[in-house]
Amino acid sequence: MTDPVRPTTPTSPGLTRTELRRYSRQLLVPEWLDAGAQERVRAASVLVVGAGGLGGPVCLALAGAGVGRLIVADDDTVDLSNLHRQTQFTLADVGRAKAAVTAARAQAINPFVAVQAAPRLNATNVQVLLAQADLIIDATDNFETRYLIADTCAALGREWVWGAASGTSGMVSVFGPHLGLRQLFPEAGDDLSCDEAGVIGPVPAVVGNLMALEALKVLGGVGEPLRGRLWTFDALSARTRTLNLRPPTGPAAGEEGG
User: What pLDDT does residue 49 have?
Assistant: First the structure.
């Protein structure tokens, strides 16, 4: 697996009084404070690919936590059917660009974060967008884009946070160039979107918030991110499992927790 993503020591001035007050509850957590995580997160840039049910909670949580820069890539527009789960949107947003609305909502949460909307990630712009970020978050809902992110990150030796939610279940992992999406899913699955398979509203929010937490752990150098592990969630039973993943030469194995 790749080494933890640890941005270099920030060269910008220290946290202002307002920032110290804003992030005071995070700074009360000993592990967060001792790692200098707030300063690391403040110096980081994150690319969130997808501004829907997963990308929405990811962006809002990271903005609230004080990530220095957020880039939100999507080309979809808000539909009435999105509103039961994509709670970054309101009825007035129907028909508007998801990336722009999500970026504006994240910016409104925290003026200390630089937030920008970007077009849909594709083979032409993927390397340009990835080059602007310390960490990539795959919050998409189709295997074509997922594989594009996975293959590009693997080729560039990058690490990325991945998640998926559908129906009543979800998954999250932190992938790297030696163990990633291609090892977990060598071929595209059914690839049913929420529009096709349905989804209970809070499920993407649960998954998206865990993705944001994993991103903060990676960027802040705190705790044990889900590198080499896959977290799974079943909403109907409230059961979670954490599976240990293995490289292609060995079988997938074991589980932790319950």
Answer: 98
pTM of the model: 0.90
Cα 178 from Cα 51, distance rounded (Å):
27
Contact 170, 232 (CB under 8 A): yes
Min mean pLDDT across 20-24, 132-136, 176-180 is at: 176-180
Query: Can you tell me the distance from the alpha carbon of 105 to that of 26, in angstroms, rounded to the nearest whole number?
Result: 21
Average pLDDT for 209-218: 98
Q: Name the β-bridge partners of 107.
A: none
Residue 61 has pLDDT above 90, yes or no: yes
Best CA proximity match to 158, nearest among 138, 140, 177: 177
Q: Beta 239-244 vs 229-234: how paired, if at all?
A: antiparallel
Place of tokens 């590198």: 227
Residue 27, burial from CB neighbour count under 10 angstroms (0-12, 13-18, 19+): middle
Within 193-255, residue ranges assigned H as helices are 194-197, 202-220
H-run or E-run covering 72: strand 69-73
DSSP SS3 for 152: helix
Distance CA 183, CA 172 (A): 14
> What is the rounded distance in angstroms from the CA atom of residue 105 to the CA atom of residue 89?
9
Structural contact between residues 141 and 50, judged by C-beta atoms closer than 8 angstroms:
yes
Q: Considering only 96-100, 162-166, 254-258, which range has the smallest mean pLDDT?
A: 254-258
Do 216 and 41 contact (CB within 8 A), yes or no?
yes
